[in-house]
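Z., the sequence and structure:
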Amino acid sequence: MTRAEISALSLPEQWIVTRCHQVINKCTQQLDSCNFGEAGRAAFEFVWDDFADWFIEVDTCTHIHTDVAPAIDTSFSKYLDLPLIEV
């Protein structure tokens, strides 16, 4: 994403996208150094602590307070260019 695209996002979305890119860089460095455990730990901590625990909670509160509560918001996947599996 370009800086202009990121700045057009809401503040929580800006934070999670920026944080995701930081974790990608850290994981890449750790994998290049064959530190597989540290790379896995960084990825796990991002998914569990930053994304699941923080971002989804903030995003859910935002939707509740704006009376817009979609069952699953798949829009985040476009920021990462990753497919999102819907269950």
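The chain has a mean pLDDT of 76. The chain is about 70% helix and 0% strand.

Let me know what you think.
H.
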